[in-house]
Design a protein that fits this description.
Blueprint (H helix, E strand, L loop, with lengths): L10 E6 L2 H11 L3 E14 L2 E15 L6 E15 L13 E2 L7 H12 L25 H9 L6
Length: 158
């Protein structure tokens, strides 16, 4: 979207990713599926700068890292980003603005970025608990042979 197309009064945009885009994003994110992905943005122009606020919402099919069962995660990521023609010019207590490319900003790319940042890399079902497997103590010690050799050689002293 070109900055010049944003009215002085601001603009509200809602986008929803089609199935093909969601399938591609699922591969890139290494998740089973993304059944739903949408974003709602409010764009406010301030000279050549644009502030984008809103939300990215998605449902993501993942695998629980504890039980290895399929599960679905719900994402709701808040967006608050400022774009400017060139980086720099931020006050000490402000983040640097994102760069506009040829006077344009890509809302699809922005939604994708917040989706990918919001996906939990270690998803876990709410009731999943890890129980370590029982280990049978056979009495064998893996370094017993080395200990015997050390003792035979006089404690390992040269």
């Amino acid at each position: 979207m070109a900055v010049e197309d944003i009215p002085e009064t601001g603009l509200h945009m809602e986008i929803e990713a089609p199935e093909a885009v969601r399938a591609d994003l699922a591969k890139r994110a290494d998740v089973r599926e993304i059944p739903a992905l949408s974003a709602a943005f409010d764009l406010v122009r301030n000279g050549a700068r644009v502030e984008v606020t809103g939300r990215v919402q998605a449902r993501v099919g993942q695998t629980c890292v504890v039980t290895l069962e399929p599960m679905e995660s719900v994402l709701d990521e808040a967006v608050d980003v400022v774009f400017a023609p060139s980086p720099g010019g931020a006050a000490k207590d402000e983040e640097e603005p994102e760069a506009l490319v040829d006077g344009k900003l890509d809302l699809g790319a922005l939604a994708t970025e917040f989706l990918l940042l919001g996906i939990d890399p270690y998803p876990r079902k709410p009731d999943a608990e890890f129980t370590p497997p029982a280990v049978e103590d056979t009495g064998e010690r893996p370094f017993a042979v080395l200990e015997t050799l050390k003792n035979r050689l006089g404690g390992g002293r040269s």
